[in-house]
Amino acid sequence: MTETDTARPIRTFHPRRGRMSARHAGALDRLWPTHGVTVTDGDRTPLDLAALFGREAPRVLEIGFGMGDVTAAMAAADPGRDYLAVEVHTPGIGNLLALVEEQNLDNVRVAHGDAMELVHRLAPGSLDAVHVFFPDPWPKARHHKRRLIRPAHVALLRDRLRSGGVLHCATDWPDYAESMAETLAADPGLHRVHPKPASTQPAPAARTGPAAQPTPAAQPAPAAQTGPAAQPTPAAQPAPAAQTGPAAQPAPAAQPAPTAPPDTTGQADTTGQTATAARAGRAGRMGAVGRPETKFERRGRDAGRPITDLIFRRA
Predict the structure, then answer these.
(1) What phi and psi, each to the nearest 5 degrees, are found at residue 47?
(2) Would you list the DSSP string of 172-241?
(3) Residue range 280-303: average pLDDT?
(4) Residue 63 confidence (pLDDT) above 90
(5) 136 catalytic, yes or no?
(6) Fewer Cβ in 10 A, N or C end of the chain?
(7) What is the pLDDT of residues 207-226, one digit of tens each?
(8) What does the DSSP assignment read for the chain?
(9) CA 118 to CA 43: how far, in whole Å?
C-alpha cells in the first residue's frame, strides 16, 4: 500500500509546456519502462536505487536538468557513478532519454515530477552528491518561499547525502546567490568547499601555439653600422630597404602563430572526475568547479551577470 500525505507541497518550479519532437517521443516510449520513475505528490514509498540501476554504485541526484545535455555529459564522463535526474519539463525528459539511448548510457535514470517529493523517497545517506544547477530564482519577494534552496529543503538534501557527500549549487542571480550562501552556511551539518578560482584557469581562446606560449615580441632591426668594422645585416633580420642586386632576398612574410584547438581535456572537479561535454554534442568543458557550462550560464554571462558556484560537503 502506498503511503501518501494529503498536504499539497509548495512548488519550487514553473510548470512548462512544450512540443515533443518525434525523436523525444520515440525515446520516451522506448526507454521510460526501464529508465523512468514517476513521482507522485505525497508518495513516501522507499525507492530502491540498487534495483532501479541494477547495481551498487555511488549516486548523484540531478535536480532540474533542463534539456539534459549537461547531465548526459557528466554521466558519460563519470561511468562509475549513477545519475538520477529529475525534471518536470517533458520535452527535456524526452531529450535526455534520447541522449541516453544514442550514447548507450547505462548509468542514467530519469524521474518526472517534483524533486523534493522524490527526495522524500530516498534513504538517508544514499547519495554521493546532489546537483542544483541554475534553479528558478523566483526574484519577487512574495515568491521567495518557492525557492528550492531554503532551510527545510537543505536539511532534507543534507540528510540524504552520505558523510562527505557534496551539495553543489549554481546560479547567475546575485540576490539568490547571496541567499543560497547564507542558507547553506547556516546548516550545521554542512561545510563549504572552496573550488579552485576560475581565474586561474586560462580560457581556451587565449592559448596559442602547440605549447600555449605567447608569441615573442618582434625585435627592431639594428641601426646601420658604418666604417671599417661595419658588418652586413644577419640573414635572419629583414634586409634593409636600400639593398638591391642579385643577392638581395625579400624578407619572408611573417607567419601567424598557429592556434591550438579548444582545450577539451577538462579540469579536475571536486570529486576527482574529469570530463568534457563534447560527448553530449556540446562544445563546453569541465571547469574549475567540476561541471560543464550550461545554456543558462551562457545566457547569464551574455547579460553581464556573475556566475556563482556554491559547493558544500556533509560533515
Answers:
(1) -95, 120
(2) S-HHHHHHHHHHHHH-TTEEEE-PPPGGGS--GGG--TTTTPPPPPPPPPPPPP-STT--PPPTTSPPPT
(3) 69
(4) yes
(5) yes
(6) N
(7) 444 444 554 555 555 444 44
(8) ------SPPPP-S-----PPPHHHHHHHHHHHHHHEEE--TT--PPP-HHHHHTS---EEEEE--TTSHHHHHHHHH-TTSEEEEEES-HHHHHHHHHHHHHHT-SSEEEEES-HHHHHHTSPTT-EEEEEEES-----SGGGGGG-S--HHHHHHHHHHEEEEEEEEEEES-HHHHHHHHHHHHH-TTEEEE-PPPGGGS--GGG--TTTTPPPPPPPPPPPPP-STT--PPPTTSPPPTT--STT--PPPPPPPPPPPPP--S----TTS---BSGGGT---B--TTSSPPPHHHHHHHHTTPPPEEEEEEE-
(9) 8
Please tell me whether the overall predicted TM-score, pTM, comes out greater than 0.85 for this model.
no
Average pLDDT for the chain: 77
Q: Is the pLDDT assigned to residue 284 strictly greater than 90?
A: no
Paired strand residues for 312: 167, 192
* CATH value of 22-198+263-314 in 2.60.120.330, 3.40.50.720, 3.40.50.150, 3.40.228.10: 3.40.50.150
From the candidates 136, 159, 187, 263, give the one annotated as an active-site residue: 136
Sorted by where each begins, the domain ranges of the chain are 22-198+263-314
Segment 246-282, tens digit of pLDDT: 444 545 555 544 444 444 333 333 333 333 333 333 3
Q: Which residues pair with 37 in a beta bridge?
A: 111
Residue 233 to residue 205: CA distance in whole angstroms: 37
